[in-house]
Amino acid sequence: MIKNSCRFLCVVAMIFSIASCGNNSKNSPFKFDSNAPAKQVVVVTDFGRDVDDAQALAWLAGCKNINIAGIITTGDIPAPRAISAKLFLNLFGVNAPIAYPDSISLAKQTEYLKRTEIDGRSYELTLEHNLADLSQSAMIVNSKYFTKRSPSPSALLDSVCKKYPGEVTLLVLAPARDIFIDSTNYHLKEIVVQGLVSKQQTGESINDILVPDFGSYNFRSDSTAANAMLSMQDKVPFTFIGKGAAYASPITPRLGRKLEKRGFKYPVTKLGKDNLGAVTNFIKQDRELGLRSFLARDKKTFYKIFNISNSTPIGKAIGKMKIYNYPYDLLAAIYVSNPEVFKPTEIKLAKQTHKVVNSEQEIKDKKFLKYIIR
Fold first, then answer.
1. Mean pLDDT, 10 residues at a time, over the chain (374 residues)?
2. Could you tell me which of 32, 51, 92 has the C-alpha nearest to residue 260?
3. Which residues contact residue 178 at a Cβ distance below 8 angstroms, ignoring those fewer than 6 apart?
4. Cβ contact 368:29 at 8 Å
5. Residues 48 and 76: beta-carbon distance below 8 Å
6. Which pLDDT score, from 0 to 100, does residue 131 have?
7. Which pLDDT does position 204 carry in this prediction?
8. Which among 60, 206, 341, 350 counts the fewest CB atoms within 10 Å?
9. What is the CA radius of gyration of the chain?
10. Under 8 Å CB-to-CB from 66, ≥6 apart: which residues?
11. What is the CATH number of domain 39-248+326-371?
12. Cβ-contact 124, 77 below 8 angstroms
C-alpha cells in the first residue's frame, strides 16, 4: 500500500513538473516566427571591453531571425576589437564584413592598454590571445576581411544600406565614432541605441529635439559622435535602451553560471560541443578579466555599482557581488530580435516617434532572461 502511494505521488509530481515546464514556456514573452524574413543588422560594438558585448553578439549570432550584415568596432582599441569580434562570430559560422575607425592615435591606444593591464598585459589583448587559440585564428585572420584593408565604418554602413534599402537596423552598443560623418545616403529602418536621451525644450513640445544624456557611457565617451548620430532623429526612428532597464533585470549569479556552462537557449540554432565550449569560456573569461580591471582602476565606482560594502576587502569584492552582470548591451540586442518582450514609452516629435526602455514598467516580465538561458 505504501509503495503504491509513493508511486502515485511520484507520478503526480512528474505530471506537475511537466505541466509547470509547459506553462513556463507558454508564459514566455518571446515569440519566434521561423517563417519571418531575417532582420538585417549592423552592430556597433566595443567588443572585449565588457562581457555584455559578448553576450549581445552571442545572442544575435544564434538567432535565425537575425542576419548580422556588418560589424563596426570602436572605442579605445578598435583594431584588436575587430579581430576579437571576428574570431568570436566565427564560432557561430557568421562571416560578416567588419570595419573600424583608424582615427584613434597610437598614443591614446597605448595609454589605454597600459591603463587596463592585469599582470603586465592589457586584459583585452589577453582575451584576444585566448580567443585566437579557441578559434583557430590563422584561418580567420587570413580571411578576405583581414588580408585586405577594412572599409571605413561609414563606407561599410553605406554599402549595407544600399544592399538592403530601408531594411537595416543599426544597433549601437558603443560610441558611434566615424559613422555619421556623411549620413545623407543611409536608408535605415531604425537605430537602436544602448544609451539615453533627454528632450530639449523649444516652446512647443512636438518641436522639441532629442539631445544626448551624457550620463550614458556611449554618449559621454564621444560627444561629437553622439550628436552626429542624433542628427538623424528626423529621418529615422530611434529606440533607446537605458541602464535602468538593465538594473531592473540583471543576470543573477545562478543564471550566469548556467550561461557559462550551456550558453543561450535558441529556438533553432545548436552549436557543436567544441564551439559552445569556446563561446562560454570566452564569456566567463571576459567577465572575470573585465571585472578585475574595472576594480583595479576605479574601486569606488565598482563598489557603488555592484552594491559592495565599503568594509569588504578589495580581494573579496568580486566574490561578494549579488549579480553576475548588468546586461546593458544584451537587452538592446534582444530588443532588435524580439521587441515584443518590451513595452517602450513613446516620444512623439514632429517628424518621428521614438521609443525608450529604461525601467521595470517597460519590460513585460523582468525575469524574462530565464527563458533564454538554459
1. 49 39 64 89 95 96 94 92 92 92 85 88 88 59 47 92 96 93 81 92 68 92 93 94 96 94 83 88 94 93 93 94 96 97 94 95 92 88
2. 51
3. 74, 101, 103, 152, 153, 154, 225
4. yes
5. no
6. 84
7. 55
8. 206
9. 22
10. 38, 39, 41, 60, 336, 337
11. 3.90.245.10
12. yes
Q: Which amino acid, one-letter code, is at 270?
A: K
> Cell 513538473 sits at which residue?
17
In single-letter form, the type of residue at position 126 comes to T
